[in-house]
Amino acid sequence: MASRALSALLLAALACDVAYAKFGRHSFPEDFIFGTGSAAYQYEGAYKEGGKGPSVCDTFSHIPGKIKNNDTGDVAVDFYHRYKEDVKLLKDMNMDAFRFSIAWTRILPRFELVVPFGGCFDTSLGLGGRFAASSPWRMLCRWDLGAATEAVQP
To answer: pLDDT by residue (tens digit) across 48-90?
Structure first.
């Protein structure tokens, strides 16, 4: 799914470049960074893998009737398993950078145990990004906190 979406974007960009030949990458300063980004919940999938704990979005989306078609982010676009293919697509698209978010629950699975920053997934993705000549820019998904945080009272 992700590879089809990225391929469609690449084709659209190529079509636009032909239609508007005066506007392209050369229209920007030489040091301009072209990149793309993702959001953990909508992108990662693998919601019960790699030590990941439940997030508020996982919990909410599993309540029947709360989300249209009872869709969840359990698989999403499966970036967790397909990141090598997707990073290769970024290289093929000539992207300079990739900003990806990591679910809080991959780092604080139960909001008590600290896992090394992003665990193996983050490390592999960072290396995959470098191997693909893209600069990986990590961030924590700012709104998808661990489900345990809802139990914490101020």
So the answer is: 998 898 988 899 999 999 999 999 999 999 999 998 898 888 8
Please give the angle made by the CA atoms of 33, 145 and 60, to the nearest 5 degrees: 115
Beta strands in the chain (DSSP E): 35-37, 97-102, 135-140
User: How far apart are the C-alpha atoms of 84 and 91, rounded to whole Å?
Assistant: 11
Give per-residue pLDDT as tens, 87-118. Answer: 888 888 888 888 888 888 888 787 664 545 44
Q: Which residue has the tokens 């959001």?
A: 39
What secondary structure letter does DSSP report for 64?
Answer: T
47 close to 74: Cβ distance less than 8 angstroms: yes
Q: What is the mean pLDDT of residues 129-146?
A: 61
**Reduced to 3 DSSP states, what percent helix, strand and coil does the chain have, rounded to the nearest 5?**
45, 10, 45
What does the CA dihedral 106, 112, 117, 119 come to, rounded to 10 degrees?
A: -50
Q: Is the pTM of this model over 0.85?
A: no
